[in-house]
Amino acid sequence: MRALLTRIEQASRLDRVGDRMQRVVQSTLRPQRVRDFLHGVWLGHPLHPAMVQVPVGAWLSAAVVDLLPGQRRAATALVTLGTVSAVPAAVAGWNDWAALSRDQRRVGLVHAGANIVGLTLYAGSSIARLNGRHGLGRTLSYLGLTAAGAGAYLGGHLAYKQGAQVNQSVSELHRMSDGWHPLADLSDLPQRELLTRQVDDVSVILYRHGDEVTVMLERCPHQSGPLGEGEVQQIDGHACVVCPWHGSAFRLNGGEVVHGPSGNDQQTLPTRVVDGVLETRLP
Ligand code: FES
Fold first, then answer.
1. Is 14 buried (19+), middle (13-18) or exposed (0-12) by CB count in 10 A?
2. pLDDT digits (tens, 9 = 90+) for 233-279
3. Is residue 243 in contact with ligand 1, taking CB distance under 6 Å?
4. Is the distance from the beta carbon of residue 80 to the nearest atom of ligand 1 less than 6 Å?
């Protein structure tokens, strides 16, 4: 299985289809507001993994209910609920997929392919059941569950092994030691400019606004882009740092994500000033 997954990650033959699909997704899901909604910016958490709980739960429940006598209506309702709810979950998934790296997009493409097969089988199952053909509906459901299960396995690989849409920066905190760390003399910090400093060997950015200084991790939670090389922009009246790699934007007064593709907020660190020296520590 590991060898197969590695082959998919390295399957450059998928890139032609992948690049074309990426253009289609990017031109279809065009308004930034729609993309941000689907990334989960409003939630501060990627939306796709939350949404897939509904079809997965409904389809698994249908698989159990199908084994019980006299539960045809319940099974039909569960299969139909899973089928309908899988559509918006898939749209959110495609939106995330379009901002992944190439090797992640290859696995994502196979993940999507398996899920499309699963969804088609479940749609057929729902139609068969609604037309009274419950035996056929059951068969199509179990085939759909097999395909969707393979898709879910690939989705797990994409998240847990390849780190797709997983917060890439927060593990930096594990490399910081406890206690307060001096960063700079407050009087030396320019107003409204991004600076990069090291805490132990963790890179952080500093942004001074008046006597307040924001300190946040420098690695972008999306795919580790260098926020210290990003631009500061005013977005909705708030100073935000915009990642130079894919444009995720984070408020400099709290770290909330305001534009995707990151669905995660950026981690800020507590600060204090002692004898004119700015210090920070683990949250
Ligand atoms: S690395 Fe992708 S937006 Fe920052």
1. buried
2. 999 999 999 999 999 999 999 999 999 999 999 999 999 999 999 99
3. yes
4. no
Backbone dihedral angles phi then psi of residue 119, each to the nearest 5 degrees: -65, -40
In a 10 Å sphere around its CB, with 0-12 CB exposed, 13-18 middle and 19+ buried, how is residue 73 labelled?
A: exposed
Q: 122: which 2 tokens?
A: 């479940």
Q: What is the pLDDT of residues 141-166, one digit of tens each?
A: 999 999 999 999 999 999 999 999 99
DSSP codes joined into one string, 236-273:
TTEEEEE-TTT--EEETTT--EEESS--SPPPEE-EEE
223 lines ligand 1 (CB under 6 A): yes
Atom of ligand 1 minimally distant from the CA of 168: 1
Q: Residue 51 Cα, ligand 1 centroid: separation in angstroms?
A: 23
Question: Is 85 close to ligand 1, i.e. is its CB under 6 Å away?
Answer: no
d(C-alpha 88, C-alpha 50), whole Å = 11
Q: Does the pTM of the predicted model rise above 0.85?
A: yes
Exposure b/e, 179-209, CB count within 10 A at least 16 = b:
eebebbebeeeeeeebbebebeebbbbbbbe
Question: How far is the CA of 98 from the CAs of 12, 207, 220, 264, in angstroms?
Answer: 16, 31, 17, 17
